[in-house]
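I'll show one example:
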Amino acid sequence: MDSGFHILVVEDEADLAELVSFNLEQAGYSVRTAGDGQTALSLITEDPPDLVVLDIMLPDLSGIEVCRRIRQNPDTKRLPVVMLTARGEEVDRVIGFEVGADDYVVKPFSPRELILRVGAILRRATPATEDGITDETIQCGNLLIDVGAHRVDVEGQPADLTALEFRLLLDLARRRGRVQSRDALLERVWGYQPGVETRTVDTHIKRLREKLGAAAAHVETVRGVGYRLRND
């Protein structure tokens, strides 16, 4: 079964690259591989994939730097990125998320886990217009969300959000005034099952607030429960 999605696997360990590629292909994805960061960036420029599986430890550029450059390029800034690493400390995950990674998988991992995460990211990366919504706008004070245009303005100026940050903000906005638990956000925005232990939501909320600037106060923390978007 061909899913129609193309994935670039960036991994310098040949055996692991082959394993990841095989399992992705079995799941119906078209796969290319790169063994270093420079090659990966060239391939992304020549023929952008639908998603990148990116190892942090590469022989030339680090995966963090590759992800940073992907996000700095206007043509690829919304390209979904899943980081792979053998290091599981929270600081590494935070750095990965801060440069715009959509998810983070720690080695060793099960191929099934990776496939599920890739599938969840690709589902949420589909255009908002597929919901049948082409002209929805949501106004919260100085914050304006144009769903069809996939655009967020703060005091009339565009906020440069990643696709995941936009989806997170939109999820809160469509339920504004109501508290959303971390589990609920993980399930709807990330496609995870409830009960997953992760600081992913907190990290992305922090990054979202930074990008919203003067509108950051609209995203409120409800201690011990989760987050909500103020209804004003």
Observations:
- The longest strand covers residues 6-10.
- The chain has two domains: 6-124, 128-229.
- Residues 6-124 form a domain with the Rossmann fold fold (CATH 3.40.50.2300).
- The chain has eight helices and twelve strands.
